[in-house]
Design a protein that fits this description.
Structural class: alpha+beta
Largest sheet: 8 strands, antiparallel, barrel
Shape: globular
Number of helices: 6
Distance between the termini: 63 Å
Helix content: 10-25%
Number of strands: 24
Radius of gyration: 23 Å
Length: about 425
Amino acid sequence: MKIKPTLLSFFSMALMGLSLQAQPLSNQVSAKKSFAFSALGKWRGIFKINPELEIPFNFEIRNVKGTEKLFFINADEHFEGGIIRQRPDSLFIKLDQFDNELAFKIEGDGLTGTLRKQDHSGRSTAVIAERGKDYRFATTGKPATADFSGTYDVVFTGANGKEEKTVGLFKQTGNKLSGTFLKITGDSRYLEGTVEGNDFQLSSFIGSGPSYYKGSFSTDGAIKGAIIGARGSQSFSGTKNSNAALPDAYKLTYLKEGYKTLDFSFPDVNGKKISLKDEKFRNKVVILSITGTWCPNCVDETSFIAPWYKKNKDRGVEVIGIHYEQKTDAEYVKKVLNRFRDRFGIEYDQVIAGTADKQVVANSLPALNSFLSFPTTIIINKKGEVAQIHTGYTGPATGKYYDEFVNEFNQEIDKLLAQK
């Protein structure tokens, strides 16, 4: 897929000129009155990762109770990205969930700009968007040679030769393909794309960083391909297997010998220290979520835990979100944790424990044998002892695997609540 030469000037303009800041709401209102451009509708975006790689994504801008909002579309999911802020020549979408923003220059009836951090630090990625296009990958019309739907044993191989076992889940309808890869650390969420002949492409974007998978199926049940990004690629291969499964997520992370619980005291955004020894948690089942606002799988877990807690908090359960974030200064932590709380309606305690690094987690919670994945969910019984640790998160994109996790989670909580 090649970008038309005329679009290259759009990219350079965007990269050099989008240091604009969105105006206050009062100024936006007056600007809109004199400007005819409306962002409402469906859009197809393209990330220009490098001269050889473009990653498409889809989104829709809707008017929700008088506010224009962007929703990213990936297979069955419409993920709320952020509120539209418009000025006469520009469009800004604060992707608060990941502390990013899309900054667009309006070019006729199209958009050209960048994906960047809200504080403008680090690297930006060039992006264009075209109105009214709801396809993802351009196709030639070549039919798929077979229906490749199903479950696959898949192994990813890194540049250093290290292998990671995963489960590939795919659903095909004609040339349309959706799927996900389930790993011990979590799943790759909702992937969407196409299959032509034996070859497939899949992509996803919800505001953090775009994902792109390319590969091929064979009629004898084999799959091979690579996940490709700005920093290189990682190959994968596998075979169709309806019984494909991962190692038991409840046996990967555990307490070191001699430990029965976790001993910590971490502050919330107001500086108040919170510990399992607090009276609030005495004789209750407590769920610890080792999480981060930057983590897509943590977003999925919180989407489950927050409403679950509202329904079950009167049964004698509590939740503590133990956060490890990109930065730990007080202003940043308050900003991202409060955003997280507001977005998901969190009513349980949130604490900040350190930076988003697995070794930092291991050091701050030394009773754990190791730390493998954000998120990790730890369930504490009424005696204050660790009853169960689940590594990673099996999100709704995994279908039956997600349903199994929810059932197992509820059964464990019911069992612990019944104990005296």
